[in-house]
Amino acid sequence: INAEYMGFTRPVTMAASNYSLRITYFDFTGKGEPLRLALSIGGIPFEDNRITFDQIALIRDTLPFGGLPVMHIREGTTETVLAQSSAQLRFCGRLSGLYPTDPVQAALVDSILDSLEDMTNCILITMSPADQGLAPFAEDPAAPNSFISTRTRIGTEVLPWWLNKLDQFLGDQQFFVGGRLSIADLKAYVTLGWFSAGFLDGVPATILDPFPRLKALVARVHAVPQVAAWNAAHPQH
């Protein structure tokens, strides 16, 4: 089994054929999309189970850590329920040949995944501060601890700092690690696309403009045939 993309071929582990996979997530990109893309690039069949916010309220207590995405992995008569999107993405990357076998390169991929997760959490915490044990935002929009003031600082100071670090890591490479597409690039593609979509309060749609190399990376991943085919079949929400 081969996955072809961007002018080179990477073998997909035959172990992938032993698994029946189901990804349960919402009907938008978010943390579930890198998983979907990795499996699609690897040509690995999976059930794309999309649920509503009302439905998660009914199943939350049954989820390993109370959140989505969750992945069901069936091998013969054995089923494993895997939580946490980074662990899921590494699993999908191993199946698809998009996670390095070299320990150092794998650690570098992990460092990008963790950095992108830290960046994402900057936004997610502001969506539900009470869930994080934080005080509610001030009602006065002009207050420094209001929602919009906090988001504006994140969008104009915190995220640009992180983006500059990612840009320096990428440098003039085509992809983040080893000169080849990996799950780090897929997660960056989805995360940076979210930041620059223009619908996050306080985060300007132009946030990537100072970082043309990151914008080029997003365009490069977008052009991967399997990614383009997936996007065409699943219009973004």
Descriptive account of the structure:
The chain is of the alpha+beta class and 237 residues long. 46% of the residues lie in helices and 14% in strands. The strands form two sheets. A four-stranded mixed β-sheet has the order 4-3-5-6. A two-stranded antiparallel sheet has the order 1-2. A hairpin with a 2-residue loop joins strand 5 and strand 6. Helix 1 packs parallel to helix 3 (85-96), helix 4 packs parallel to helix 6 and helix 6 (183-195) packs across helix 7 (212-222). The protein is globular and about 60 Å long. The model is unreliable at 1-12 (pLDDT under 50).
**Helix count, per DSSP?**
8
Number of strands: 6
Rg, alpha carbons: 18 Å
Beta-strand content estimate? 5-15%
Please provide the ordered H/E string of secondary-structure elements.
EEEHEHEEHHHHHH
End-to-end CA span: 32 Å
Sheet with most strands: strand arrangement = 4-3-5-6
- Main sheet attributes: strand count, strand direction, barrel closure: 4 strands, mixed
Helix content: 40-55%
- Overall pLDDT: 90
Spans with pLDDT under 50 lasting ≥5 residues?
Answer: 1-12
**C-alpha geometry:** globular
Structural class: alpha+beta
